[in-house]
Structure formats: C-alpha cells, structure tokens
Amino acid sequence: MIRDHLQEIALEHGCVGFGVTTADPFEGLAAVMESRRDTGLASTLAFTYRDPAAASDVRRSLPWAERLVTVAYGYQPDAGTAAVDTATVRIARFADGDAYIGLRAALDAIAAHLTDRGHRVAVLADDSRLVDRAAAVRAGVGWWGKSSMVLVSGVGPWVLIGSVVTDASLDLDTATDRSCGSCVACIPACPTNAIVADGIVDVRRCLAHLLQAPGVIPVEFRTAVGDRLYGCDDCLTACPPGKRILTGASSVEGPSIVRVLSASDRELLETYGHFYLPSRRPRILRRNALIAAGNDRSEHLEPIVIGYLGHPDWLLRAHAAWAIGKFGTESSRASIEMGLQDEDDGRVRSEMFAAKARWQIDPGLR
Fold this sequence. Notes:
Layout: H1 2-12, E1 15-22, H2 29-38, H3 52-55, E2 67-74, E3 81-82, E4 90-91, H4 100-116, E5 121-125, H5 132-138, E6 143-144, E7 150-151, E8 159-166, H6 186-189, E9 195-197, E10 200-201, H7 207-210, H8 219-225, E11 228-230, H9 234-237, H10 240-243, E12 251-252, H11 257-262, H12 265-272, H13 283-296, H14 302-307, H15 314-327, H16 330-342, H17 346-361
Parallel strand pairs: 3-12, 4-11
Antiparallel strand pairs: 1-2, 2-8, 5-8, 6-7, 9-10
Helix pairs in contact: 1-4, 13-15, 15-16, 15-17, 16-17
C-alpha cells in the first residue's frame, strides 16, 4: 500500500506522527478564525488569518487536491533550553537550530515517492494556505491541547507539523479520541495569562507572538519577558504528555545579552536567520535583548544599554530608556536627563519620562 510506504518514509526521516485525511474544507474553522480576528484575539497575526477561507479549504489554492498526508516532526530531545545563567537570554526550543530542515526533508521525501508514481503534489509547511494543526487533528496525528497546540502521543507538544497535498486517493486515517481531559497544567503556567479558555489564546498577551512582532512591546508584559530573546516554552514545559522527554533534552548555552546588543546586523542574521524577523531586520532581537537587560540589571550591562540611547532606531532608544529605568543608578538617571535634552521623538521621550516616574515611586532603585 502506498500509504504504508509513505508512513515508513516519514518514520525514517524522524517523524513522530503520521496520518492521512481528506482535502475537504475544515467545517466551521474559517468562522472561528474570523471571529478571533474580529474580536482582537488574533492581534495583528496575518499568515492564515489573512484569508481564513483559503487556509481552511486547501482546494481554493490547489483545486486538484484529494488528500493531505500530514506528519509531525519531533524536535526533542536534541534541542534544549538556555542554561540558567546571569546575563544570558533564552531561545525557545523549536528555534534552537532550524528544525524545519528535518520536517521539510521528510515532506520532500514523501512528495518524491508520490511524484514517482505519477501523482500531483504540493508541500505545505508553515504555509498560509493550510491550518496545519487542523490537518494534524483530522488525520489522527494528535489532538488539540488546551494551550491550542497539537499534542502527539509520546512527545506531547514538541512537534512541528507539515503536509503533502496530493491527488492520490490514499486510505484515510481517523481522528484520535484522545484529549487533555481534566488537565489544565498549561493554563496557569502561562506567564501572561494568554490562555483565556480551552484551546483559545489571546495572542495580544502571548510572549511567543510579542517577541517576534514588530513595534513596541507593551509595558505591562516587559517584566514577564524575563530573559527571553525569542519564543516562550512555558505552556509546553508544563504539559504532562511531553514533560518526561525534557529529562533527556540537552542543555544549551544561550547567547549573552552583550553579544546580541554588540553584534552587527550581518552577524545576527547569520546566526538567527532562521527566525521569523519582520522585514528580515534583526532590530526586534536587540529590542528583546534590551528588555532582558532591564530585567537582569547586571552592572556590566548598564553602559551598553545607556549607549543605545544614541541609537538611530527610535524603537531601540525607547526600549533602552525602559531598561535604564530598571537600573536606577546615578549613571542611568544622568543619561536620561541628558537624553531628554536631545531626544525629539515623542515615543522615546514618553519612555524616558516613565523611567523618571518609576524612580520617584521607588527611590530605592540603586
């Protein structure tokens, strides 16, 4: 059977889940997505939210589609989390290296097998034409978790999902009847209370989104950012189905805050080019590192953060002003006073005045 051969290929390429479902529209999904977009829960997300009707019906872009061959590619335990150490930043496990390379290799091998047998194919991974989690659930690869992640038996949420669309009439799998049951471990684990209901995330509060979104990170979430540079794993690490494999995860050293703030654009892109960076600019990494510096408050970070008050990018000056406000030393206070004399961007000035206000409220800041 072709289906069985495809499953063998997936397993040989490191996939931990496999299933086949129809290419029929996902009934009701577009309406749910539109509702979340209209109520603001989806924040500024584009991607599949740009056209929910197309993302929930792959035949709108590929009218010949008959089946979705969907796989889950595990990125644990090889990936790790940043070792806890002062003045370093954490990167989410999925972004510790480009795990999508392995996923795409598996999908390409499946697609090649189908092509060799005369079938049409299209590989969709991290693609706005398909809600990949919905495909995984209907194909029986996993089930919807209360965190909105897809959970796969044996590995929990530590997976990336992709599909091969084909015109082959492959045997179908059925959706799993598993669920999270009464477990709600992920909900209190979220540092910003972004999981507002079973399977519903308010993206406006989600650190994983905020740390890769352009623009200003809201003040009310900056302390919760902690030492994160990119992504957030808290709802995943709290999830019991995947918790046990964390004991086998390697521990990797996160980059230092100084390194991120001192590196050139080219150096940052060479190291973190596999991240989603708006407009392919590494400014958000510096923005995030400035917040981490303010949360860390190590003495050696203060001079480099103060130096960012002279950066040509207003966004970085604004977040530097917030971080300086967290230091509260005489040098920090003097730098804000001097900055106010030269700064003409209202957004940056607001952050500077906010820093001064914090010092008045808490004069004990060193």
